Amino acid sequence: MRQLETGRAVRGAQGNQVRDAEKALADAEAAAAAGKEPRPGERIGTAGGASRLTDEYWARQKGLESGVESARRNLDAARGGQPAGNPAGASAEPPDPVR
Questions:
Q1: How far, in Å, CA of 21 to CA of 79, rounded?
Q2: What burial letters (b/e) apply to 3-34, b meaning 16+ CB within 10 Å?
Q3: How sure is the predictor about 10, in pLDDT bands with cuts at 50, 70 and 90?
């Protein structure tokens, strides 16, 4: 009986961890989407009269994408190390075409 209760507690904690990781991934993806628009000062004029995005903009984009990737790895770990949609033992690489 005690093993059953312990098992339920562990599964409940794992479920909470997965839900938290899913929320963190959704938040990171939302932040990345919202951060696509340049902020004031992240666009500068060029000699030809056009404009370009600054290095600061690209660094911010890289940080946002890094946050998404980190959240995705955390979610995979919370789910037991298997990426979503990739059953155990399945290769993430597409098979070579048959010749």
A1: 9
A2: eeeeeeeeeeeeeeebeebeebbeebeeebee
A3: low
Q: Of 42, 24, 35, 95, which is closest to residue 64 (Cα–Cα)?
A: 35
C-alpha–C-alpha distance, residues 23 and 88, integer Å? 24
Residues of the chain above pLDDT 70, percent: 71
pTM over 0.70: no
List, for residues 50-86, the tens digit of each pLDDT value: 999 999 999 999 999 999 999 999 999 999 875 555 5
Amino acid residing at 20: D
What's the Cα-to-Cα distance from 78 to each of 25, 32, 62, rounded to whole Å? 12, 22, 24
The Cα–Cα gap between 52 and 42 comes to: 8
